[in-house]
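Researcher: Please generate the 3D structure of the following complex. Treat every line as part of one assembly.
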Amino acid sequence: MAEKYEIKETEVWDGNYAISQALRQAQVDVVAAYPITPSTPIVENYGNYVANGYIDGEFVMVESEHAAMSGCVGAAAAGGRVATATSSQGFALMVEVLYQASGMRLPIVLTVANRALASPLNVRGDHSDMYLGRDSGWIQLDAFNAEEAYDMTLCAFRIGEHLNVRLPVMVHQDGFLTSHTAQNIHPLSDEEAYGFVGDYKCVDEMLDFTRPVTYGAQTEEDWHFEHKAKQHKALMDSRTIIDEIFAEYGNLTGRTYKRVESYLMEDAEVAIVALGSSVETCRLAAEELRAEGVKAGVVAPRCFRPFPFDAVREALKDVKAIACLDRSSPGGAMGALFNEVSAALYSTQARPMVTNFIYGLGGRDFSVKEAKRIFMEQKAHVDAGHITTPIQQFSGLRGPKLGFFETKRS
Amino acid sequence: MAITSIKNLKEFSTNNDRFEGAHLLCPGCAHSMIVRELMNCTDDNLVISTNTGCLEVSTAVYPYTSWDTSWIHIGFENAATAISGAEAMYKARKRKGTLKDPNAPVKFVAFGGDGSTYDIGFQWLSGAMERGHDFTYICLDNENYANTGGQRSSSTPVGATTTTAQAGSHSYGKKEKKKDIVSIMAAHGAPYVAQLAPNKWKSMAQGFQKALGTEGPCFINTVSACTTEWRFDPKDTIHITDLATDSLMFPIYEIIEGHELNILYRPKNVIPVEEYLAAQGRYRHLFKPEHKHVIESIQKEIDQKWEMLQRREEARI
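Model: Done. Output below.
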């Protein structure tokens, strides 16, 4: 039996430590992992719990992130709770197996401390890794601060392991900005946390020898399509289950999350849509602008996959101008968030103006001042009745301004 | 019921079938002989992982499966890691008391071809061996990427022609030596490592049983004659394998705890390697006068390796 860990009502934890504690409290059966900055402390902390008797499960330190996810898949197929952590290049190395994990419908929890992808090499936070996972068939939850990283990790087990979901879940936090920034956190007691997560429910486990199972079969044009469609449907149908689990978690903690988090949106005229720690920056900017009479609000997808198309549309349908902030190099296209949000808004009557900002790549700072500037640019579009800037701009870039595409409405 | 005491081949070959005959492997492929023998030599429950390759694509095409046991395939390179994960889960659940039948005996086995073992999955295999999981890895070594049409692997021997190391007017086929996977695995300090062949079915079954009965990571390289890419008649699989073991192209031996080497088969009459080469289309070009030197050098390598194995065995270190 694992040793009892003393937890106070209020702890000062960074995002990584908060996640390590959530993994311990969920009594994960197998953690197979490989360290990479900035997620490394998650597995170091976990290793510390193992060394001091707080963990009954297995801790498998493999030789690469590809192996980490491979070990997680093998472990999950054997029937039990499985989790790991990674960032950036490690995430990229895992990608092959991410698709295999979701295709096999294995509810693994992957906590990601978001970091830029090389080249050039960069250890700081942006969302390149998170975006790389967006078609992998995983549920992707986004934490904007350390406490949310803890909360989302506990919720991730419940969501992924739900018998009507059975999908792997990523929990994203911003590298360094969230992973290494300590804040006051109000964790659940071990009993409450495990009570919420619950015992793992085995489905088609390889260790039930009365009923052999085959994992990872081959399907060609005869069956592949049906399998992938079913997987997509499971992702889409998980939306209501995510809502239910968030509500239940809210009853337990007083912290109620939504698939789309709206802030000061009731009468908003201009809005920013963002992910990660920048959401809090934008909220501060909106508060300051409200004091100056600008009707600014912030919309943030808590759940990046399945993308909350419906909830985003509902949140933004009455807004006049919207800036979508993408913290990932778009590689010759519009930013992913811009594309998703624009697609959702295209089916509204009003079709508000939407522009795209690429910002914060490789950990470039994003300030309240800059968020306010972006809000005011939206206000200028509203006042002019049309988009007055290129549709895609780079925010916080040194050197001459960079922007692409003009509005054509005539 | 599987057979655990081996009396005769007929009994052994007709016993048990947790590996179903209805699979898509080529007629004459040695893979199925090796796999069946592994599954026949134990009564224990099996959890099996398989790398992408001939065995995998031929045995689990939805909605069918040839595996009447727990089986998983993830990718080309990670069967050793998949089985590591499953074995870790078994240990965790045993400790926590969440197994359905905690007393059911179980063995963890991974299969890979030489492509996934020697090449693309080498790192994953090495990692799993180093971590010391309780499992047996079996390489079905047919010396080429047969599943994708016969390209070179680092197991392809000198002189064989493959689609990516072809014999031609300026080439005698593959020029690089076959990687010595057995020594590499022994150097990991694995408790049991062996090279076995399905024509010597009794020593192969005994080797499998030793590996399954040994705690810790065990590795077995098995020669798996490939009728399609080695180019011989499907009925001749065992005959070709006899030539492989009797020419000492494939010596049969084991290494215990990384150092104690035992030769498991000594041919009464060692045949010249020329006979082994002449029986296969992949070596046909070597019999042109300009390539005679290649056959000579292959023979020389074999003689040196056999000498080394015998000295290692005598030295007992």
